[in-house]
Write a structure and sequence with these properties.
single chain, mainly alpha
Length: 295
């Protein structure tokens, strides 16, 4: 009997087995069905109907529409810069300094030690501080001092103030960049060293090896935590309300304080944030499956 005949016979045996198992357990889908998604969908439909039919909810939602665009802008731009910061710092921290020989090698090692320790110090400080404190320090200490320095010494006037959306974006990007750097570092170091040696043997330098060999594999492996951090960024962007930036939380705070409609206002806010985070999670899952399929 040939291999193809044995394979065909095995397939013919497997089909009745699968059918018998499905008949033996007819309600298997009850265990695998995403009931949580159904509950969220029904709750969202109910609240959406209430917003459309109820004048109070409709007015609150119209007031919050301005904050939705601000929240998404702050979250998306901050995360984009955080990815760049995290990638650079992660690459630095994934390559600890090693002793080199010769005068030029010693100089390179000395510079490498300085850069590596500065990157490590940055990560330790940013990961040890609450994001709210980072926002306040950037808004009321670092950016005002930098603006005054540039204006006094170089005559350059910086348009945005410390309590503006630009300062919030910078602060969130720096804070999240420290967290993402550890994610990238773990992904880079998870790639087998043999691939690095093979790339070097082909004549690739460090940057070519990172670009064509290491980073494509590392990004696939760290995509789930990167997606989780993006969802967390959407939620943590609500902290910018403390700077007076008109995001969803700030507008809700002002609106509820003047109308005393706390229940209706914050239920609507919770629905908006929940909808944004769920959509973000679904996009991340789609990208994860797509990259896994291509891999």
């Amino acid at each position: 009997m040939s291999f193809s005949d044995r394979k065909t016979n095995q397939e013919m045996i497997d089909i009745p087995l699968q059918e018998s198992r499905s008949r033996a357990i007819p309600w298997t889908f009850l265990y695998t069905f995403p009931w949580w998604a159904l509950v969220l969908l029904l709750a969202g439909i109910g609240i959406a109907i209430s917003i459309a039919a109820n004048e109070i909810y409709s007015n609150i939602f119209r007031q919050l529409q301005e904050g939705i665009s601000m929240t998404l802008t702050v979250a998306a731009v901050s995360y984009a810069f955080a990815v760049l910061i995290g990638l650079v710092v992660g690459m630095i921290r994934s390559n600890p300094p090693k002793p080199r020989y010769g005068l030029m090698g010693i100089l390179i090692s000395f510079v490498h030690i300085i850069i590596y320790n500065l990157a490590t110090l940055f990560v330790m400080i940013m990961r040890g501080l609450p994001i709210l404190i980072v926002l306040l320090i950037f808004a009321f200490v670092i950016l005002p001092a930098f603006r005054d320095y540039m204006e006094i010494n170089y005559g350059i006037e910086i348009a945005f103030r410390g309590s503006s959306a630009e300062s919030a974006i910078i602060a969130l990007a720096v804070a999240y960049g420290a967290f993402l750097s550890e994610t990238f570092r773990a992904g880079i170091q998870s790639v087998h060293k043999g691939q690095i040696e093979a790339a070097r043997s082909l004549g690739m330098n460090y940057f070519q090896t990172m670009r064509y060999v290491i980073l494509p594999q590392a990004i696939r492996r760290v995509l789930p935590p990167l997606g989780n951090d993006f969802v967390a960024m959407i939620k943590d962007s609500s902290l910018v309300a403390i700077l007076g930036i008109r995001d969803i939380t700030q507008i809700a705070k002002i609106s509820s304080g003047s109308s005393f409609r706390y229940l209706e206002t914050y239920v609507t806010v919770a629905l908006i944030y929940l909808l944004m985070t769920i959509i973000g999670s679904l996009i991340v899952r789609f990208l994860e499956r797509r990259l896994a399929f291509e891999h």
